[in-house]
Design goal:
By secondary structure, the protein is α+β, with helices and mostly antiparallel strands. It folds into two domains: 334 residues, no CATH class; 120 residues, 2-Layer Sandwich (Alpha-Beta Plaits), CATH 3.30.70. The chain has 14 helices and 19 strands. Helices cover 30% and strands 25% of the residues.
Length: 462
């Protein structure tokens, strides 16, 4: 092929898919790559799976594909996603059942094998950031999944899959795989500088598209420049027109909102990047310092010049373990002296926790509208400014190893409606508590993970 066009799908579980519809209808895409798994999404899916073992996948994949498939099938567009989460087979079966009910035809490939919970104990996988021994959480671990690379997706596309559903695959690998498949790039057997540079360029393309609208001016935070982004209500998700050498034109469907220019592309390029000289993925290590961004105008930016180094021998793992419970309550106080009243009320709650000897690890307090966004970095208003505030809202979160303590936290508040500071209003969350899942990042040798990866082809109406 001379080139392929890859459209961005979702950037997280619950993202909007109407811009994807537009990319399919007006963007001339050959592939859609959809990233449903933000870093903490597996914890959400684990709670789903605890309620129902048949769940554990991103359920938006079914209504999304019901909307997209008739449009994609008519145009020969193929779809790749990691919506399988903790249960790729369940996601595949759910899509197959939904398609069968419509009488549609499709080949759906399911990639599994990223689950590594049973492997971590033998490999004594310490916490990546603080080196805490795995033994401290082993009995409380609920899931652990390695970030797979592009190879199983490439293999699934080679089997003729119209739709590929994976578990925890690295975000950008969803976009790299169509490039490898279409152009015949070397992947597992890459050995030359040319091989690594092409893969690095493909990884760069994936990184620019993996966050849906953010790559087209959404969430753009450049001082006053964010005001110049047009019509975000009808944003067009980015599209990459990729050449056989990996160079790409980043654009979007005509007639859509948002903006593709040097600044928006540059911001997305550096998003979640710790070291731009060594952006590691399961497939290649990208050096961004050699990249060239050429703004061609009319929502078009050409990206070229990436250099790559051999892939790492270890894969990143995200695990989740039981880490106690939380409960939170929010309520407000009005002028006069709203902030001072809030401080008195916080003191009353602290006194009750102490007097009743309620077991807890932390009582977190913040003031929405004052310091929720910036935390300790938020400037503290002067006493005069605080005294003139129309209203102050307080959010208190109790973290505790005791479910009973979390369940009972809300009972500490109602009596203050008549016995606390005046002009209180808007209690919320009095009856809400939930289990906390701690996140366990670590590394594992790829040689013990990749042999367990499997591809299942589910055919419907074929």
């Amino acid at each position: 092929m001379n080139n392929i066009r890859i459209g961005a799908g979702l950037g997280f579980y619950g993202d909007a898919w109407e811009p994807v519809v537009t990319s399919v209808e007006r963007g001339g895409v050959h592939y859609v790559a959809s990233d449903h798994l933000a870093e903490l999404t597996l914890a959400i899916l684990q709670k789903d799976r605890q309620r129902d073992p048949a769940l554990g996948y991103a359920r938006d994949v079914v209504p999304m594909l019901l909307r997209l498939w008739p449009l994609m099938q008519a145009r020969g567009v193929r779809f790749v996603c990691n919506a399988g989460g903790l249960n790729p087979q369940g996601a595949g079966e759910a899509v197959r059942a939904a398609f069968a009910a419509k009488g549609w035809r499709a080949r759906i490939a399911v990639v599994s094998g990223d689950g590594v919970l049973g492997l971590l104990g033998a490999h004594k996988a310490p916490h990546f950031f603080n080196a805490t021994p795995y033994a401290q959480v082993q009995e409380r671990m609920l899931f652990a999944n390695a970030y797979l690379g592009a190879q199983p997706i490439v293999d699934a596309l080679a089997l003729g899959a119209d739709i590929v559903i994976t578990g925890r695959v690295a975000d950008a690998a969803l976009f790299l795989a169509p490039c490898v498949h279409a152009f015949g790039w070397k992947l597992a057997d890459a050995s030359s500088a040319q091989d690594w540079n092409r893969l690095a360029q493909g990884l760069c393309v994936g990184h620019l598209l993996e966050c849906s609208g953010q790559g087209a001016g959404g969430n753009f935070g450049s001082l006053e420049a964010w005001k110049s982004i047009p019509d975000l209500a009808h944003i067009g998700y980015p599209i990459a027109q990729v050449e056989p050498d990996g160079s790409a034109l980043i654009c979007k469907a005509p007639g859509t909102g948002g903006r593709i220019n040097f600044d928006t592309v540059r911001q997305q390029l550096l998003y979640e990047v710790h070291n731009p000289h060594a952006y590691a993925s399961p497939d290649v290590v990208l050096d961004m310092s050699t990249l060239q961004l050429e703004d061609l105008g009319q929502d078009r930016v050409r990206v070229s010049g990436a250099t790559g180094q051999p892939r790492p021998q270890q894969l990143k793992v995200v695990g989740g373990y039981q880490d106690g419970f939380k409960a939170e309550v929010t309520w407000g106080f009005s002028w006069p002296d709203a902030y001072a009243k809030a401080q008195i009320a916080i003191g009353m709650v602290r006194s009750q926790l102490h007097d009743k000897k309620i077991l807890h690890d932390e009582l977190f307090v913040e003031f929405p509208g004052l310091n929720s966004a910036h935390g300790a970095l938020a400037p503290v208003p002067s006493d005069e400014q605080l005294s003139e505030l129309n209203e102050v809202w307080v959010r208190m979160v109790l973290r505790t190893p005791s479910k009973a303590a979390a369940d009972g936290f809300g009972r500490l508040f109602p009596w203050m409606g008549l016995s606390g500071p005046a002009y209180t209003c808007g209690f919320s969350g009095l009856h809400n508590s939930s289990e906390l899942l701690g996140i366990w990042p670590t590394l594992i040798e790829r040689s013990v993970v990749e042999p367990q990866v499997r591809i299942a082809l589910l055919e419907v109406g074929v």
